[in-house]
Amino acid sequence: MNNLRRIPVRQICQRIVQNGRMYSEGTFEKIPPLTALTDDEQMMKDTVAKFSQEKILPHVKTMDENNLFEQSIIDELFAQGLMGIEIPTELGGSGCNFMTNIIVVEELSKVDPAVAAYVDIHNTLVNSLLMKVGSQAQKEKYLPLLAQKCAGSFALTEPTSGSDAFALKTTAKKEGSHYILNGTKMWISNSDVAGVFLVFANANPSAVSIT
Fold this sequence. Notes:
mainly alpha; Butyryl-Coa Dehydrogenase, subunit A, domain 1; 2 domains; two-stranded antiparallel ribbon; AcylCoA_DH/ox_N; fatty acid metabolism; lipid metabolism; flavin adenine dinucleotide binding
């Protein structure tokens, strides 16, 4: 397993996608449960665990005391391909899957939950939303940045709305080719380190009806 740990994250992602959760040839074995990792998934788990111990653990105490992320850790997360796990390779990402996201976040959490949350929000909220509902132009503009150098922030929560997104008060008024935003956001994760913000606002408040 020590040799496997030297394989780059992006290469492991390729193996995970290519091999999937495969049956053994010539058998009728059941698909393994999610608690039983494939060899490639175990390789990813070991690789991120080693990365966490070597690159993150030495800085945890200082980061907690200063309430700041160490820039070298952010740089390493991008360099390793951990900030674009599901982003397609043609847009600069690792081209992997949601299961890999789970494995990565779990291993990071064992060393520093703050770093894990940073990676989790970036991948599973910001990146995934752009991939699902973004226009092709938006994907081509923002996903390479998010995969390679820009952290993403998910700006939903307001003083009077959190998980109840229908209660948000921020509005977006179109003027020409742009929108003017008016409102207040708070408790926005990654906001201190982000370069791309997904800001939730209501472009047609009169259409909102709560029953």
